[in-house]
User: Fold this.
Amino acid sequence: MPLDFYLNVAAGGLLTGLVYGLAALGLSVIFGVVRIVNFAHGELMVIGMYAAVLAAGSLGIDPLLAAPVVAALLFAVGYGLQRGLINRFIDRPDHMQFILLVGVAMVIVNGLLIAFGPDSQSAQVPYAFDAIEIGPLLLDTTKVYAGVGALAVAALLFLFFRLSLTGKAIRACSDNQLGARVVGLNVERLYALTFGLGAATAGIAGCLMTLLVDVRPQLAPEYTLLSFIIVIVGGLGSMGGALLGGVLIGISEAMAGFLILPSMKSMFSYGLLILVLLLRPQGLLGKRP
Amino acid sequence: MTTLFDQLTARGRVALGLFALALLAVPFFADGYLISVITLVLWFAYVGQAWNVMMGFAGQLSLGHSLYVGLGAYASAALFVHFGVGPWAGVWLGMLAATLAGAIIGTLGFRFAIRGVHFALLTIAFAEFTRIAFDHIGWLGGSGGFFLPVGDAAGANPFDLRGSPALFYYVILALTFGALALCRRLLHSRIGYFWLAIREDQEAAQAVGIDVFRAKLIAVMISAAMTSLGGVFYAFFYNNLFPEQIFSVGRSIELILAPVIGGIGTLFGPIFGAFILTPLAELVTWGVESAGLDMPGIKQIFYGLALVAIVVYRPEGVWPWVARHLRLVHQPGDQPSHRAGDRP
Assistant:
């Protein structure tokens, strides 16, 4: 009986962790290519959450169906941000980039606060209280959908970077910016495309997240930090690492919340981050620079 | 950029003198509201100056300075509430705790060669970790908050730091001037030159034989100790402490606004930044409120836009630009008595 409990908690954490991992994947892609640390990542994700909640509330559209539209919206936001603002910071010192995005994040999160207020809002879905039984496991339908959705989107992104010509071009920029320019790639456009893709990924993760939690503006900085933790734990620039990191954090949060205190669960994430930074700074799956 | 008086023109010295006099005279003509606003401005100037030691001088970005504010605040408040020990003794425990925390973060970060953005994230992680830990320390009130007994607001008891707004005002004013003098001294010391060398090019600094690890560690510890003093002031000024407020990332970001806007690495930048930013933010809030709108986050939006505008249009900060245009400092072509780089 207790073992079943643990398994259930772990499986729930794993599914939530896949959504975390997807959000972190967006951050990782942006960092891996553009070399910009997107401190407004959680903010983009929460924009996606609000878009999904609005679609569900006013039009009755399921967040899963709203996801492609939200992705397109956030792609435009990301593309515009990179083109209009961030691109000129590519060669500036680290701390300048960081401060720029901290400013952008402050504007977004407080804009959301003014637009939607500080209270939690949720997207109603008809299957909110259903469960799926797999062997000894009894899993929330919402978690299964969210986790599987995250995995599917991550797979699509992976295939895009492996197979499509644009994906290959983006990887070329990431490997060697100068070389990419020499062979005639439009690096600025590809950077903007990458930022847009990263933002769209965050938006989809946000849509999936609305199945699991209520949204409020204050979630944004939390998700930003969470994405950072995951990306660093998994290894910056490694796509598999981001998913693995997300799953690890998801499971450890769920376990800590279950075994100790829910309010202390993020302490474990920060603890894990500090440990990984110190012992394996390149991350679990990252390559040594 | 690096000197306090040497580089100031006659006009600059007069401006600085008048500014100092005006600050000293504030409690004689200002009402309670104005005094409290300027107290807050000076607090941000002071803590910004402390942060500037680490980022502006030694080039190490910390986004977790709320940790040191919180440690200073909680240490002195706990001594006061639980043992009746006054803040002037509590300051030492606060500084000790913060310096120790800074030393731990610095040692771990620098020993393991964690740099740039990763180091900034390490500082955030430590601050957040501590925030959640303090949420669960019942002896210090936990997440429900820790409260100091409110003193007699009319009197003045400088030993227990209980008293009128004017008392707090002069304390923070003294701290701000003290920090300015200390930073100027540091910049012209051996370690100050080490810091600048590291900030500009760490590999080169190492190559000429500077103990980079030690120099950076000293910067973190000094910055942490100075910041914790601001925390002690915070505790006794506001009389209430909540981990969620004092240790938050948002607080850490607020702390860096003044030096970033004023000018990272300059001595007057943090003060100047605080003095333009807070009044402008008050003005924006007032304008929105008098327009009949209810926008709780408008001040933060203003701060965010200010950050973006500064890094895009004037990354060296507002102070160097203002000082140049008002001729408060000598231009590179003039002949100042001597400049920073001339000294051995």
